[in-house]
Design brief:
Elements: H1 2-22, H2 27-40, H3 42-47, H4 50-62, H5 67-92, H6 98-104, H7 115-128
């Protein structure tokens, strides 16, 4: 049980780090912050996604590869590549529809950045509970 709690707490800390690094009032603001790192180096961009590496580390250490872990990986990888796609579309191609531009400018509630903390760590905890 201690290792489950340990990895869950580590994931909470890394998700908090990501939330602080990406915090902005709109999705466009998040993309602008991430674009700075993406333009410097794609490796720097991926380095700022430490929760993905924690999940890989958990899989390697525990050997757990159940449906919960797979779903967690799919969510995390989809999130990262969706951000990359949006960054390329907005800043490199400069080809976005007016509807997408409006939705990128919507103000987000302050609790929005804590949503990942409410999703990923509980899912990891549930997935790792299978090892007991």
């Amino acid at each position: 049980m201690n290792i489950i709690l340990f990895f869950t707490i580590i994931l909470v800390v890394t998700e908090l780090f990501e939330a602080v690094m990406q915090r902005a009032s709109t999705l466009m603001g998040i993309l602008e912050k991430l674009n700075v790192y993406y333009q410097k180096s794609i490796f720097l961009f991926f380095l700022l996604q430490p929760s993905l590496y924690i999940i890989f580390l958990v899989i390697l250490i525990t050997g757990v590869m159940n449906i919960g872990i797979i779903f967690l990986l799919i969510l995390k990888i989809s999130d990262i590549f969706y951000k990359i796609t949006l960054i390329n579309k907005v800043f490199r191609d400069k080809d976005i529809s007016p509807t997408l531009r409006e939705s990128l400018e919507w103000k987000m509630p302050s609790w929005f950045f804590l949503m990942n903390i409410g999703i990923y760590p509980p899912l990891l905890f549930y997935s790792l509970s299978a090892i007991n």
